[in-house]
Design brief:
Strand order of the largest sheet: 2-3-1-4-5
Bound molecules: adenosine-5'-triphosphate, the ligand Cc1cn([C@H]2C[C@H](O)[C@@H](COP(=O)(O)O)O2)c(=O)[nH]c1=O
Shape: globular
Radius of gyration: 17 Å
CATH superfamily: P-loop containing nucleotide triphosphate hydrolases
CATH architecture: 3-Layer(aba) Sandwich
CATH class: Alpha Beta
Amino acid sequence: MSGKLIIIESGSDASGKATQSELIYEKLKNEGVKVRKVQYPNYESESSTLVKMYLRGDFGKNADDVDAYIASTFFTADRYASYKTEWEDFYKEGGVVIADRYTTSNMVHQASKMAVEDRDKYLDWLDDYEYGMFKMPRPDVVIFLNVPVEFSRKLMADRMNKFTGEKEKDIHERDAEYLERTYRNSLYIADKYGWKIVECIKDGELRSIDDINNEIYKIVHEVL
Ligand SMILES: Nc1ncnc2c1ncn2[C@@H]1O[C@H](COP(=O)(O)OP(=O)(O)OP(=O)(O)O)[C@@H](O)[C@H]1O
Ligand SMILES: Cc1cn([C@H]2C[C@H](O)[C@@H](COP(=O)(O)O)O2)c(=O)[nH]c1=O
């Protein structure tokens, strides 16, 4: 009996995915739920080597220098390695997996490189690639944190690069036009795939971490 796969996604970097995933993980663990948390990219693993090369600009200084299909394969391979070595058995034995990013990040980020008329073709290809060819499990729910770029930019400003530990941003984060385009694309995707949208801005202000988490917690319990 397979478990549950719960994804925390967003359309903007530094929007609280890691923060919210950790809080949900702790809450479920304290309730005695058999739960694990994973995060993508899996920077701790050597499987993320090509992802790191891509994000630091070894294949091109701009995100758009690397074709969406090619870049997607780096992230998929990293995810596959994590799935096969870290959580496939746990999940297939009924465990609950909370993922900070998943295939959904390729949908949000890489699809934003496509011309609008080519986007659905890419999304169909990706679906077949990750869930068909690689046989990665499909999410039971995707919880989408809606944080417009003007808010996430502030959260990103002081945050260190996750794999270099330096202040220098990766090729996605340092491209303002790319971030705007990705955010717009994410709204299209969230609607198309029926993701559960958590509006993180209220009355022009970012909601508190706990307030957002209470909403996410309810969604999670609808799935369990
Ligand atoms: N609702 C919030 N209010 C204030 N600060 C927040 C909120 N949510 C997250 N933060 C802060 O914003 C920063 C980025 O958060 P976090 O690392 O969780 O984002 P992320 O979406 O996982 O980032 P990335 O897209 O790079 O993976 C952190 O310093 C975190 O403490
Ligand atoms: C998993 C995954 C990620 N990406 C993109 C999304 C972000 O811009 C970076 C990762 O940055 P983080 O701050 O370390 O989270 O990579 C992607 O395009 N495809 C994916 O599958």
